[in-house]
Design goal:
Helix content: 25-40%
Shape: elongated
Number of domains: 3
Bound molecules: adenosine-5'-triphosphate, magnesium ion
Radius of gyration: 29 Å
Number of strands: 18
Structural class: alpha/beta
CATH superfamily of the largest domain: P-loop containing nucleotide triphosphate hydrolases
Strand order of the largest sheet: 9-8-18-17-16-10-15-14-11-13-12
Largest sheet: 11 strands, mixed
CATH class of the largest domain: Alpha Beta
CATH architecture of the largest domain: 3-Layer(aba) Sandwich
CATH topology of the largest domain: Rossmann fold
Length: about 500
């Protein structure tokens, strides 16, 4: 490989046909007498375009058609001509340099000699080591070029906002499952807003056989008592989710206070109180419609024995837990009620240090989070200890301030120009590199940006690790290939059969 041209922080490299590279690879440019070597990242690959090469291709094509006798080539000129035609130009971005003591520094750019410099490959392992990345609680992600294992540190997700985005079916949820289950193996508490009901089949490695996966189905295994959720959370639900007017909200809270003072706070007593409460008929109607919405969500229950308390559930799993909140079969309003209830309760528990910080995995958050909750999650809630990972196939659903505050971004393939625009505008890495690399990423490969990789974009193929494919879209024709008896006999996925360990 040879240096060809330089333009600002971009350098073009001439590569010979046998020097194979993939987009995202790192190269090192050494030069005798220089104390530091330049670190480049390949983001584009094309042929060397010369007029003489075009002429050569045409000439050879014509000769092969017209002159069968012209095969005699004693100096093997044909071979050289073939090499010239297959020369490639690699578009590279300068990422920094590695100095003599082996440490990486960003931003130092110098002009390498075309004649004297030599170019070699730089493995991501060596690059990250040079950048000073320390090993902590390892989370295996997959492999980089050359089949080197690639992992990040759980510490780099701790206290952070992360985003996983890419087009449909590119492997986002699969990566999220890898992250979530390994966080839990390290003893963390992970809450998942599980839109497709696909996380509960994970089996993080356990000690002494105790399961770390808790599947919460709102209205079934996830129900709360009203006193547990508390006055301020219910009042938030009423105003934010159920859009209760101010006057009605005040009456609701007065009924609450009245019942609480008599130690009679329960859902059924609330219904009775609304019917007999002295108030304007319009207000009563507004109150009853909100009351029936709460009742209809089946999220609240009067019986303490069947109710969940988040702090106790966490205490029951002292070595970490994966709490899957299954949102699959819920209507829009019940979904939002569930999410807002959990978020406000968890926040209250964190504020009084009743639970340790949690990691939150929010799949397709645009379906159930209101605008202000986004801001809250990326700022206030994060401060108290809710560390969110957003997973979405609609990058424009995340506002640009969410991208700007993200510490880690995992980008899968996108081909749609609008999607490419929204990710390249929003992320900190340079536009050219991202657009070019992301467009050509194979499925199940992603670019990792941000803190986990010391701000050096790394392309990795996500490992399979035997995860089950519960998130797969159920297809019409797949079912048709099974016998009708089988379909009748097994209407639902049998969890025990699909459970597989990731280790
Ligand atoms: N690295 C991988 N190794 C093996 N299988 C994978 C890998 N990544 C994804 N898959 C499989 O590919 C399919 C699609 O992956 P996944 O559900 O993660 O995609 P997605 O991006 O979340 O899609 P959607 O946008 O529909 O939610 C699944 O069956 C999953 O098990
Ligand atoms: Mg998914």
């Amino acid at each position: 490989m040879k240096v060809l041209t330089k333009d600002s922080d971009s350098i073009s490299i001439l590569a010979f046909p046998d020097e194979k590279v993939t987009l995202g690879d790192y190269l090192l440019v050494h030069q005798v007498g220089q104390r530091e070597s330049l670190v480049l990242q390949v983001y584009e690959e094309g042929y060397l375009e010369l007029n003489s090469v075009t002429e050569e291709i045409i000439r050879e094509e014509l000769l092969s058609i017209s002159g069968e006798g012209i095969l005699h080539d004693p100096h093997d000129v044909g071979h050289v001509s073939r090499i010239i035609r297959d020369l490639r130009v690699l578009g590279c971005k300068t990422r920094g340099s590695i100095v003599e003591n082996g440490s990486f520094s960003m931003g130092s750019i110098w002009l390498p000699s075309r004649a004297e410099s030599t170019i070699s490959r730089l493995s991501t392992h060596n690059l990250l080591k040079a950048s000073g990345r320390k090993l902590g609680h390892k989370i295996d992600i997959g492999t980089t070029v050359g089949e080197h294992g690639f992992s990040i540190n759980a510490e780099d997700l701790d206290g952070c906002l992360s985003i996983i985005t890419g087009k449909k079916g590119s492997g986002k949820s699969h990566l999220a499952k890898l992250l979530a289950s390994q966080l839990v193996e390290h003893g963390a508490y992970v809450f998942v807003f599980d839109v497709n009901d696909e996380y509960h089949a994970l089996e993080p490695e356990t000690i002494e056989g105790e399961s770390k996966v808790i599947r919460w189905k709102p209205g079934d295994s996830l129900r709360f008592t009203m006193p547990y959720i508390g006055r301020s959370s219910i009042s938030n639900l009423l105003s934010n989710v159920l859009e209760t007017p101010g006057v009605s909200l005040r009456e609701f809270l007065r009924i609450w206070d009245n019942l609480e003072s008599q130690d009679m706070l329960s859902l059924s007593r609330f219904g009775d109180a609304i019917r007999t409460w002295k108030c304007n008929e319009f207000v009563r109607e507004a109150l009853s419609s909100r009351y029936y919405a709460l009742l209809g969500s089946r999220l609240f229950i009067d019986n303490d024995d069947n109710a969940v308390t988040i702090e106790e559930s966490i205490a029951d799993h002292p070595r970490g837990g994966l709490f899957c909140i299954s949102l699959k079969r819920l209507g829009h309003s019940a979904r939002r009620l569930t999410i807002e209830t959990i978020l406000s309760k968890v926040l209250e528990l964190l504020e009084r240090s009743a639970i340790p910080p949690i990691f939150l995995f929010a799949e397709e958050a645009q379906l159930y989070l209101r605008e202000t909750s986004w801001d809250d999650l990326v700022t206030r809630m994060r401060h108290y200890g809710i560390f969110t990972t957003f997973i979405t196939n609609q990058p424009d659903a995340l506002r640009s301030n969410v991208y700007r505050q993200a510490d880690n971004i995992f980008l899968f393939n996108f081909t749609n120009e609008t999607d490419l625009d929204s990710i390249s505008n929003a992320s900190t890495a340079d536009r050219d590199t991202l657009r070019a690399i992301v467009k050509t990423l194979p499925t199940r490969s992603c670019v990792v940006l941000g803190r986990a990789v010391n701000e050096l974009p790394i392309v990795t193929r996500v490992s399979s690790l035997g995860l089950t494919a519960l998130g797969e879209t159920r297809l019409f024709f797949n079912d048709r290939t099974k016998t009708p008896q089988l379909l009748l006999a097994v209407p639902e996925t049998n969890d025990s059969q699909t459970r597989l360990s990731i280790k």
